[in-house]
Amino acid sequence: MISTQVLNDTSGTAINSLAVGSGVSVYTQKVNTERGVDSALVLVIAGTISVTQEVSIDGTNFYTPYDLGGRVSLGTIGSALVTTGMYIALNQVSSPVFAPYKRFVFQALSTSTLSAYYLQQE
Fold first, then answer.
1. What tens digit of pLDDT does each residue of 84-93 get?
2. CATH second-level architecture of 2-10+17-121?
3. In terms of CB atoms within 10 Å, which end of the chain has fewer, N or C?
4. How far is residue 119 CA from its own chain's centroid?
């Protein structure tokens, strides 16, 4: 089964044609990934956005994932994305980051409009 959801920001507003000012970061609410086998993001962007992910074991405290040496962030999903429609696989091959909860951070590098959807295969 594949479930799809529009991501919400931390205030509960759907990230669906959301206007984001240059330099502003939008954090999503947590996404429960405990039952997920595979996952992806679908983004619709007008402007320039960078995307990172953070992980949590309790759904409250989020952390940027790093490699074993603690030197390289594994949280970057995409930098300076300008494509109007994009599918980004978040599986264990392209993004070896897993935890019971994730959240995403969208940073607008220019005034942008963003829609963000999360897909998860259970």
1. 677 776 664 4
2. Sandwich (2.60)
3. N
4. 11
